[in-house]
Write a structure and sequence with these properties.
Distance between the termini: 39 Å
Largest sheet: 6 strands, mixed
Low-confidence stretches: 169-173, 175-179
Structural class: alpha/beta
Strand order of the largest sheet: 2-3-1-4-5-6
Mean pLDDT: 88
Bound molecules: guanosine-5'-diphosphate
Radius of gyration: 16 Å
Helix content: 25-40%
Length: 181
């Protein structure tokens, strides 16, 4: 069975743990501890193929920013999460996406853009159309989700598996040329 390493990224408080725990254990955690960073394993079936996801729920706080290079290097797919209730969290993910591309050094990296807390419509600060434009620019799928109401939780993890199943990432040609010279 294939195994995929998935990294869940986003600033503190956007619901990375809530989404991961909802997916893995099927319950919603109200408790907010931004320092928790953990690995989870779950077997899922996507398009009739079973696979195992090893999910790293990152801490996402500034003091751990330097750790990101490390887990980006090891990750194969990235769930990039912002909260629809926080414009700031939507700005933060742009920096994280740049970091993913820089660390991976390849043309194509499996990424899905996720706007969490879609149940809090009355507190919305990020429109779906703004996020869709960003996803088009990134050339990646986009979903709004809610860890609380379990909306699109399984779907977003299935989608990142599909992205990882698409043609293997191409090595950075410039880098290969440099090492050959
Ligand atoms: P993390 O720091 O990104 O891992 O965020 P957490 O998963 O710890 O969530 C931060 C806070 O937001 C917690 O109080 C959660 O209960 C809450 N939360 C997470 N996801 C949702 C959601 O989809 N809807 C609502 N209403 N609250 C959420």
């Amino acid at each position: 069975m294939r195994e995929f390493k998935v990294v869940v990224l986003g600033s503190g408080g956007v619901g990375k743990s809530a989404l991961t725990v909802q997916f893995v254990s099927g319950h919603f955690c109200e408790k907010y501890d931004p320092t928790i960073e953990d690995f989870y394993r779950k077997e899922i079936e996507v398009d009739h193929n079973r696979c195992i996801l090893e999910i790293l729920d990152t801490a996402g706080t500034e003091q751990f920013a330097s750790m990101r290079d490390l887990y980006i290097k090891n990750g194969q797919g990235f769930v990039v999460v912002y909260s629809v209730t926080s414009r700031q969290s939507f700005q933060d993910i742009k920096i994280m996406k740049d970091q993913i591309m820089r660390v991976k050094g390849v043309d194509r990296v499996p990424i899905i853009l996720v706007g969490n807390k879609a149940d809090l419509e009355h507190l919305r600060e990020v429109s779906s159309s703004d996020a869709l434009s960003l996803a088009e620019m990134w050339d990646c799928p986009f979903m709004e989700a809610s860890a609380k109401s379990r909306t699109n939780v399984n779907e977003l993890f299935a989608e990142i598996v599909r992205e990882m199943n698409i043609a293997p990432v191409k090595e950075d040609v410039d880098w290969v040329c440099c090492t050959l010279l």
